[in-house]
Predict the structure.
Amino acid sequence: MKKITIILSAILIVVLSSCGGSTANEAAKTKDETKETTVAKEEAPVEEKAAEDVKPSERVDLSTKGVGPIKDLGELPPIDEKMVKEGLELFQAKCTACHKAKSKFIGPALKGVTEMRTPEWIMNMILNPTEMVEKDPLAKELLVEFNGSPMANQNLTEDEARKILEFFRTLN
């Protein structure tokens, strides 16, 4: 019994010393590499967050029009108060289950959305949410950010989507 204990102890010592042990040179080298990395981090200038570091709902992208029927709205006319009123009514009836104007809910807050997305992208998202999350890179990222909750297709007309867009223009 004593011999078995001694043999097992010897095997244990050999195993432990061969696993994860490092020589003094390796330990010193690792310590130097860590020190160099720390110094490099301290000396590196502070940079603004890269686009990848900004949440999709906070990222400004005025370069894409999305996927859907709206190709080019041109320059929008001054805000039409009648359209805003009708857009607000549509928003309240169709969108408030998932969206709030000023705060994140199931979907993103919509205040300022017209400063972050093109009018075409917004209308295509309203009119064509399924294809947008399948094909539009930003819509895909938003889907991930909002826990995979896809936007429901409310089967709105282009005229109704344009009225909702007009309401969004007043949220800035």
Summary: The chain has two domains: 2-46, 59-169. The helical segments are 2-18, 24-43, 81-94, 113-116, 119-127, 129-135, 137-145, 158-169.
